[in-house]
Amino acid sequence: MTERERNFPALRERLRPQCDEIIARYERKRSALLPIMHLFQRSEGYVSAQAMHATAEMLEITPGEVEGAVSFYTLLYRRPVGRYMLQVCRGLACSINGAEDVMAYFREKLGIGHLETTADGLFSYEEVECLAACDRATCMEVNLDFVYDLTPAKIDEMLAAMRAGTYAVAPTVQTEAPAGTWAIPQDAQVAGGEKSRGARGVPQPNNAGGVGDASGIIMLDNIVAGNVRRFTGTTERAIVDSHAVVETVEEEARAGH
Ligand code: FES
User: Fold this and answer.
1) Is 128 in the pocket of ligand 1 (CB under 6 A)?
2) Which atom of ligand 1 is nearest to the CA of 138?
3) 125 beta partners
4) In angstroms, rounded to a whole number, what is the distance separating the alpha carbons of residues 112 and 115?
5) In the predicted model, what is the mean pLDDT of the chain?
6) What is the pairing mode between strands 140-142 and 145-147?
7) How much is the pLDDT for 64?
8) Which domains does the chain carry?
9) pLDDT of residue 195
10) Is ligand 1 within 6 A of the CB of residue 208?
């Protein structure tokens, strides 16, 4: 058992009043899921399996439901990460404004790639989808704090300040040493087509659709070929092969849609 795991029951008790206060704000307990996950992440540096189980218990939902929500958001980290989490936007507006160059510059300066952490545990790096700050592209988040209008000079200055311990945003707590990568192996199964039709044929589970990457191109090819359908009763965008399209049309016909 790690020291963090040994300390978890005490942390849980310490956070209990805050969790109760958050839960009381909502009509339904489960609505408190994300604020409670952020609370644990601020305390442990990431969302641990213990935190997810404890939250499931408090909210009277299953651990699977908790992990389903946590795994959706790049704002929540499911593995220990570096003291500075650098999440660079690769969305459309940022791509048009030079995100490819920004990402290449970060990778070169840090010596790591997407979903990796430097050996000293200082930086974790991720390329993420639109951060909803398109008017200030190219942009990123540092420990969930926005940085806009990125340039090589700005990046140099920022990394130097983080290394010197003088950066304006505080480093995150680190209750467990991060590994070289914080990718989640199960995500690869999803991308391999095991669970989600939308992820079928997408080569990189954590690159699901960024402009210019292979996943985005596969998605675009499917759209152009007319293989994308919106399924009845759900807002999920599904990319399916032609056989599955036929099946879906038949199902819809049977259901009288
Ligand atoms: S595309 Fe980067 S913030 Fe929207």
Assistant:
1) no
2) 2
3) 86, 116
4) 8
5) 83
6) antiparallel
7) 86
8) 3-70 (1.10.10), 84-164 (3.40.30.10), 185-255 (no CATH)
9) 44
10) no
The per-residue pLDDT for 68 is 87
Ligand 1 binding pocket includes 134 (Cβ within 6 Å):
yes
Sheet containing strand 116-117, strands side by side: 116-117, 123-128, 84-89, 140-142, 145-147
Each residue's pLDDT tens digit, 65-98: 898 899 889 899 999 999 999 999 999 999 999 9
pLDDT at 52: 95
User: What are the structure tokens assigned to 204, written together?
Assistant: 């990189």
| Choice from 139, 140, 150, 211 to test ligand 1 binding pocket (greatest atom count within 8 A of CB) | 139
Q: Say how far residue 197 (Cα) sits from the centre of its chain.
A: 20
Is 94 a pocket residue for ligand 1 (Cβ < 6 Å)? yes
The closest-lying atom of ligand 1 relative to the alpha carbon of residue 92 is: 1
Mean of the pLDDT values across residues 185-210?
Answer: 55
Residue 92 Cβ contacting ligand 1 at under 6 Å: yes
Residue 90 CA neighbour count, 13 Å, CB half: 22
Say yes or no to pLDDT of 116 above 80.
yes
Dihedral angle computed from the Cα positions of residues 26, 28, 34 and 39, in that order, rounded to the nearest 10 degrees: 60
User: How far apart are the C-alpha atoms of 55 and 44, rounded to whole Å?
Assistant: 14
147 lines ligand 1 (CB under 6 A): no
Q: Which helix (H) or strand (E) element contains residue 188?
A: helix 185-191
